[in-house]
User: Which sequence fits this backbone?
């Protein structure tokens, strides 16, 4: 084995261990020279690598070919990724928050130093969506990329619909089974999906957007009543991340969404992820796979390593073209609901259309700009009102029609 081929792995948790096992099955395990962890006192499985807790973050060792960054801390990972790219070392990471917040800098750094930065494991676990978007669709006029990008919230939503659990019960179960973190905010608040959407958008549309510019609503305000309501119409609620392009204008959102059985994403359950890609020439593509976990993510991180070995780097073809403009004044149809009747006018948001969906004022269907929703997100949440996007006009018409029929019958 070439001595210039050594690897350093930072982080030996869920993904780090999956990566190490995958590597050991496929090549000399000693290539993974050093594994750096945080807690010296933790008992660990025996491996062929040296396990250290103190290691400089900037790796000037000429024999080290790549740094594999799989640590849990975004703050520590920043220096690790940035400083090594800056001195010309190759880096692989799966840290979506870090990447979504700093991709602009990382791309400039890798380009000026000649290093390579790969991160397939950061978006949708085992679905190779970054390489599909970057390589296969580099020249395709894409119209839309949307999907279920977070396995933890999808697991919780599946339990709400299949087992009639409350949100809290489903969250507890997901945590016990290791599908949700002890602090679930990033997953259930829609942030994790948002970071992945930002990264996918760079490759799909060539635009780098700051996470804080995009509306993200999570699943944490969904009630049993919302679930019952959806079921009544044969609908499901899924947390959908979506980037759409029309006339050169790009619009992004993460919203819990009412879907019907005609959607490719309707039957994605539990910890699975699904991605729909629509383009002018390619039509509609649909990908499904495990969205997280030790081996599904470890396998994709290993695929990044083999790509690095073969001299691969992302072309960022669309980023180098005159890019699209990001807007968030796209109008969407949403359902506002609360367990008790509420005055929709107290929300102080502008609607272009507002239709009550019951006689008591618990549910209203509205057409509203994404920017209006984003600016008033906290006010809406503080008033205990849940927001569900409505996937298609067909669903909106179905809901309106059904209420009108009930009214007439009453
Ligand atoms: N879990 C998934 O399914 C999944 C999927 C896709 C992407 N990711 C991303 O992959 C990364 C790793 O996630 P994970 O689930 O494997 O995390 P994890 O199980 O919590 O493991 C984190 C590892 O990082 C180590 N660590 C933390 N701070 C460190 C530091 N400053 N220096 C060196 N090591 C440090 C920890 O050391 P100790 O062992 O000593 O505590 C631990 O080994 C995260 O960015 C995550 O967002 C995870």
Assistant:
């Amino acid at each position: 084995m070439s001595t210039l081929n050594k690897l350093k792995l930072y982080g030996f948790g869920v993904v780090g261990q999956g990566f190490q096992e995958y590597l050991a099955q496929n090549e000399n395990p000693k290539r993974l020279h050093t594994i750096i962890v945080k807690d010296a006192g933790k008992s660990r499985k025996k491996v062929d690598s040296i396990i250290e807790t103190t290691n400089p973050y900037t790796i000037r060792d000429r024999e080290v070919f790549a740094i594999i960054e799989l640590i849990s801390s975004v703050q520590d990972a920043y220096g690790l990724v940035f400083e090594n790219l800056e001195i010309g070392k190759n880096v692989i990471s799966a840290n979506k928050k870090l990447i979504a917040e700093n991709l602009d800098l990382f791309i400039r750094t890798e380009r000026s130093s000649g290093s390579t930065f790969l991160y397939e494991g950061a978006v949708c676990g085992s679905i190779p969506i970054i390489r599909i978007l970057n390589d296969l669709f580099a020249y395709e006029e894409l119209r839309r990329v949307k999907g279920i990008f977070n396995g933890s919230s999808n697991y919780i939503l599946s339990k709400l619909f299949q087992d009639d659990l409350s949100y809290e019960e489903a969250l507890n179960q997901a945590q016990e089974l290791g599908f949700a973190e002890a602090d679930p905010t990033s997953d259930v608040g829609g942030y994790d999906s948002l970071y992945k959407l930002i990264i996918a958008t760079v490759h799909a549309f060539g635009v780098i957007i700051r996470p804080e510019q995009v509306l993200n609503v999570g699943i944490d305000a969904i009630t049993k009543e919302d679930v019952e309501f959806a079921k009544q119409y044969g609908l499901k609620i899924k947390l959908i991340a979506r980037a759409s392009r029309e006339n050169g204008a790009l619009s992004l959102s993460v919203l819990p969404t009412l879907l019907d059985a005609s959607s490719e994403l309707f039957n994605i359950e539990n910890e699975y992820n699904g991605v729909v890609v629509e383009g002018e020439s390619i039509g509609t593509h649909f990908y499904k796979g495990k969205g997280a976990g030790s081996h599904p993510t470890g396998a994709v991180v290993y695929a990044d390593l083999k790509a690095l070995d073969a001299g691969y780097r992302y072309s960022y073809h669309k980023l180098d073209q005159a890019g699209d403009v990001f807007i968030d004044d796209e109008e969407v149809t949403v359902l506002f609901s609360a367990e008790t009747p509420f005055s929709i006018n107290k929300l102080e948001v502008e609607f272009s259309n507002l239709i009550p969906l019951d006689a008591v004022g618990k549910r209203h269907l509205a057409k509203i700009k994404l920017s209006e929703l984003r600016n008033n997100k906290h006010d809406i949440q503080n008033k205990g009102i849940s927001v569900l996007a409505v996937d298609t006009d067909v669903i909106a018409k179905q809901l309106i029609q059904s209420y009108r029929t009930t009214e007439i019958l009453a």
About this structure: The pocket of NAP is lined by residues 10-16, 36-39, 42, 70-73, 76, 94-96, 121-122, 125, 292-293, 297 (CB under 6 Å). The chain has a mean pLDDT of 93.
